[in-house]
Design a protein that fits this description.
By secondary structure, the chain is α/β, with parallel strands linked by helices. It has 14 helices and 11 strands. It is elongated.
């Protein structure tokens, strides 16, 4: 299944309850402006609830579930869109119903919006809507970029919001005709509640693997590479995947038991996991000094960066910025372990020599892999990277698969240069991380 098919399937699912509602409409629903507003109010409520439940289902973070979507980050894009449209439609839902009721007087409109407190159906809907606004506001950066742990905590309000929204719908039980109302909403509810149960119950028992830190290397003064020894079970993964890692070292200044996403830098052929972590925040700063022997848990793998991680079928062109080198380092280590040829160019962009992490090993790997070419780009000497630079480094750039991992401005710049050089969008692959 392609990523486009997976995304299209999700959006088509939203239409299922909407179509059943439309099937139940009659001429009376178009008989007057008030009737039309009432019908639109019901439609926005149904579509908004369907979007909310599907957004909840996609947040489960079940390993492997992200693959049809092209990786977890792209699945999150769909999740965010579902959440945003759900909020918009559910905000319109009471407004349209109130305007419809206003045809019978402002008092009726007010009663529609604010009935007695004993009206559980209406007030459960209001409470669900308020909770949605609270937990979605940080996701859309209404108050600036949120603290990661605080954002995760607030996002847990999604569970009560989903349950209250279902209570609201089941109390009214008039959104769809006959059996469809119970059957369809039960199916959607099972998806959403199942996702929440997996996230907060089973993922902790089944999805997380126990490892111990067996070595700690510092390729730069703000980067550490952890080597992790597996416990009972080893993680199965591919080069370019990432995991959620949680450290359990009581001596850490911050981030104890907090899970954060990090890219694996080891080859899947290695017994141990290796993870390179740059000091980018409180938790990643603290983990620079994690004690050897301390326990960590690993959940994953996630992501689908490389189309064929074990071999290079079509010549490739890679661009890495800073710590974005880690998926490429993992792939180079893996290709060497497999003794595979590597018809690829790697442009490694850093500010200066002090930030060229793993450069010695990258150079050795590049020399050992047939047809591999390493290009260093230092911003302090060469300035912003240009299309001419890329084409001079790799004259057949337009015929290659392009892989980019690094800061967003660099990512967008390379994409523009690649498109200008004639590379189709379908052959440009990027890796980026977002909250979730």
């Amino acid at each position: 299944m392609t990523a486009r098919t997976a995304r299209t399937t999700v959006w088509l699912l939203v239409l299922v309850p909407v179509l059943f509602v439309l099937m139940g409409f009659g001429l009376s629903d178009l008989a007057s402006p008030a009737a039309v507003l009432n019908a639109l109010g019901r439609l926005t409520g149904v579509a908004g609830l369907a979007l909310l439940l599907l957004a909840a289902a996609l947040s489960a973070r079940v390993p492997g579930f992200d693959q049809p979507f092209g990786g977890l980050t792209r699945l999150w894009h769909t999740h965010h869109l579902l959440g945003a449209w759900s909020l918009i439609l559910l905000l319109l839902h009471p407004i349209l119903l109130a305007f419809s009721a206003a045809a019978h007087g402002t008092g009726t409109a007010f009663q529609t919006l604010f009935p007695p407190l004993s009206d559980i159906a209406t007030w459960s809907g209001w409470l669900a809507l308020v909770l949605m606004m609270v937990f979605l506001a940080p996701s859309f950066h209404f108050f600036g970029r949120p603290d990661y742990e605080r954002w995760k905590l607030v996002h847990r309000l999604a569970g009560p919001a989903v349950i209250l929204a279902l209570v609201h719908t089941f109390y009214f039980s008039r959104t769809m005709p006959g059996w469809a109302d119970v059957a369809i909403w039960s199916a959607f509810a099972a998806l959403a509640v199942g996702a929440v149960v997996w996230r907060f119950v089973f993922s902790r028992r089944i999805g997380r693997l126990s490892y111990r830190v067996s070595a700690l290397d510092k390729p730069a003064n703000n980067v550490v590479e952890l080597t992790l020894e597996p416990g009972k079970r080893r993680l199965e993964y591919q080069a370019g995947n990432f995991v959620y890692l949680a450290p359990f070292d009581r001596e850490l200044d911050d981030g104890y038991a907090e899970e954060h996403p990090y890219t694996l830098s080891s080859s899947p052929r290695e017994k141990q996991l290796r993870i390179a972590i740059k000091d980018l925040g409180d938790a990643s700063r603290a983990i620079q000094d994690i004690r050897v022997g301390s326990k960590v848990t690993v959940e994953g793998p996630y992501g689908r960066f490389f189309k064929s991680p074990d071999r290079i079928k079509i010549p490739e062109f890679w661009v890495a910025g800073g710590i974005g080198i880690t998926p490429f380092l993992a792939r180079m280590r893996h290709l060497k372990a497999l003794e595979e040829p590597a018809n690829a160019h790697l442009v490694f962009c850093v500010q200066d020599e002090a930030r060229a992490i793993f450069l010695e090993e990258l150079t050795e790997l590049a020399e050992s892999l047939p047809d591999f070419h390493l290009h260093m780009h230092y911003f302090y000497q060469q300035g912003p990277i240009s299309q001419q630079y890329l084409e001079s480094a790799c004259p057949d750039l337009a015929t290659r698969e392009i892989y980019i991992c690094g800061p967003t401005p660099l990512n967008h710049l390379i994409q523009r240069h690649a498109r200008a050089a004639g590379v189709p969008l379908a052959r440009i692959h990027t890796e980026e991380f977002e909250l979730l």
